[in-house]
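To: structure desk
From: M.T.
Subject: fold request, one chain
Message: Could you run this one when you get a chance? Sequence is below, nothing fancy, just the single chain.
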Amino acid sequence: MNKYSIFGIHYNATDYKEATEVIIEKAKKRESFGVTALAVHGLITAVNDSKFMGQVNDIDMIVPDGQPVRWALNRFYDLDLQDRVYGPFLTLSVLKKANKESLKVYLYGSSAETLEQLERFIQKNYPKVGIAGIHVDRFRDSTPEEDAEDIKKINGSGANFVLVGRGCPRQEIWVSDHLGKVHAPMMAVGAAFDFFAGTKPMAPSWMQNNGLEWFFRLMTEPKRLFKRYLSTNSKFLSLYLKSIFGGYKYYHIEKGN
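Reply: Done. Structure tokens follow.
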């Protein structure tokens, strides 16, 4: 699975099928492994914060969540990625495969209400997926003692994989910090928790396919998201155009095994 740099973030050129297969194989072995679905917001957050960029690049698999990220990969590297790898849909793909394998999932992050409804969603649609444990987000940094206890609970639960829904950048930082400590793949999937719990609406397919999901989310939460999208979208567009017309050089990072 090859990796390519977009503004310094090392994205995997992959699809749902390949990404799911890798995650499930790691899950069956209970092998520590990090995954994040990084769209424009996360990418530009990393561009603006070198420490965060390093933390993200430590994560084993970074999939191109947003259509603009996929378009950039195809343009800069002459790839032929047919679709993005959207975090919520990757979550469903992994749950579907985990259902066939009767694997266990640990849910980490978000509110008690969201987690309760997400658990019901999984039990209804993927009845062979065991719920190994649930952790309600503290919505703050854990103390060293709390973190050690969290790790102990996750590893002792027998979880094959962990879904992490803390929002970007907190979820990526958590996954990066727990590589080698949590004995399971950890997937930073953000809004997937809210979408499948039914606490937030998902953008229509036509908006997703045309890179307009951000606009749908802006319409649903204008006060919270206006400054974010004004900043991140304009910065992405600026870097993208500079790359095309200003001669910015991209480079192939590494080949997968």
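Reply (cont.): The first strand starts at residue 3 and ends at 6. Let me know if you need anything else for the meeting.
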